[in-house]
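Per-residue structure
===
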Amino acid sequence: MENKIMMPASYNVLSCEEMTYTEGGATFTEALLNWIPPIGWYMGVTAMRNYRKSHPNDWLDTGLDALSRDMDSSAQNMLRDLGRIVWVTATSATGVGFLVNAAIVLL
């Protein structure tokens, strides 16, 4: 007995890049929500912390490249990431905010 997988005639195999496009990315609503101060700040700081934990040895070297790739993937991702950048930068401009952000990212 032979096992065969039968696919419809219109089935196309997806590459890794296409899977990223079809699986994820920001919606327009999510992108706009990241411009609200507490949401944008929280999502930005936790995104940095999660990236640092998943890349413990090279997160400083590869972080901006990963951010650039994410921003290039769609207009919604760019809008979302810019909102996060604005609020994390704004809170880091104060001495206390910088210490809080650093503690969240590094601990």
The helical segments are 16-23, 28-33, 37-54, 59-73, 75-92, 95-106.
